[in-house]
Amino acid sequence: MSMFRELLNRSRSMVGMTSLLAGLGVMSVLSLARIFAHAPDLTSSGTFGGAIGLATPVAMAGIAGLVSERAGVVNIGLQGMMVLGTWGGGYFGWHYGPWGALLGGAAFGALGGALHALNTIQFGVDHAISGVAINLLAPGVARFLSSIFFQGVDGGSLTDSPPVGNLGKLTMPFLAGGRIGSFSTPDIFGYLERRQIFLISDISGLCGGFLRDIATETVMLLSLIPLAAFVLWKTPFGLRLRSSGEKPSAADSLGVNVVGIRWIALITSGSIAGLGGAWLVINIGKYQQGQEGLRGFLGLASVIFGNWKPFGVFLGALLFQFTESLRMQLGDDPSRGFVFAVAIGLALFAAFQLFRKSKKVGLALIPASALLFVYILNVDRVDDKLSSTFPFLVTLLVLVFSSSRLRPPASIGLPWSRGKDS
């Protein structure tokens, strides 16, 4: 037993070391691109801070999908649950402020989760069909409710709620220049970022993005990620939930109420997705029709990228939204630095694949990276239309090249009823 624990601890330390080296590798590539492309905004605290904010609702959708799918139920309806969350956040935020927006978003998202549970668990509807139906139903429900409660109200309309308010922002003292009373503390990460030192300034920009002017609701919602990891992997309930997605018949034979666990998982999933929608409402100060964009689907992609693990989900969401943050930071001046970074990354990944004897993948990537290098060296400005596709191209490429290491729950999406072996 002690030998098994020692091996387990060693494997965990190896995974941690590999993750650290991979992170340093990514930051090194970005740092090189920043220097050679003269693009200081590529790794600025503003860009990273914006990416963290934009990644929050995507990560919430991802954690929502993770909880559902770990219990064995595919949740394509995340987008619709976020829509319901935005409307609930707008209505309750109008009446009770931003705290009410969070509670209202969670409650309305939970209704979407309960509907998905009713369809899939009680009536045996195909998981994908139920999710698509919720995605189609939710916008219509939100617009209908807006016509009843918002239209004709001061500050409201068919597509907007009255103002909701916000919870303010936080800055860490001493590390990021926060204040203690009337005293302004030093900004250590800001100083290092401005020095433009290879890798050190880029890591300082990343840390500054996490610690400077970060919205209170962002801190609150991101704290759900380690909480989800703890519950799923460190508690008896988490073990029961994961067993319901791996081998429900075995879990049922050991006395686990698989149906009850899946109901709880789906309602929780809807609540978390609804919180992501409420974040959007608080972030701009009111509900707006369509403000969720495609974040529910990006959240579903982050579940796959993160290999059904909470911190992997967050990294996926951060990666997907980094390009969008960079585009917003630069406005009408898309970053040559980012294309340069992608070209370097592709070249290194191609070399890595060739080293691993995956010659087909490596040989396919070398021309792509070469074309990007030629393009970036021969243009003074990246085309706006090309830059607008960056978030989706990055999402697609990441999913394609991460598919070989995926390990989804064994019984995900499979129909199950008590007494059936699956």
Automatic annotation (TrEMBL):
Broad class of the protein's primary localization: membrane
Cell membrane recorded as keyword: yes
Any single Pfam family the record assigns to this protein: BPD_transp_2
Parts forming coiled coils: none
Cellular location(s): Cell membrane
Membrane topology annotation: Multi-pass membrane protein
UniProt keyword Lipoprotein, yes or no: no
UniProt keyword annotations, A-Z: Cell membrane, Membrane, Transmembrane, Transmembrane helix
GO MF term list: transmembrane transporter activity
InterPro entries per record: ABC_transp_permease
GO CC annotation: plasma membrane
Annotated transmembrane regions: 47-67, 74-93, 99-118, 130-150, 170-193, 214-233, 263-285, 297-323, 335-354, 361-377, 389-406
Descriptive protein name: Unannotated protein
Natural source organism: freshwater metagenome
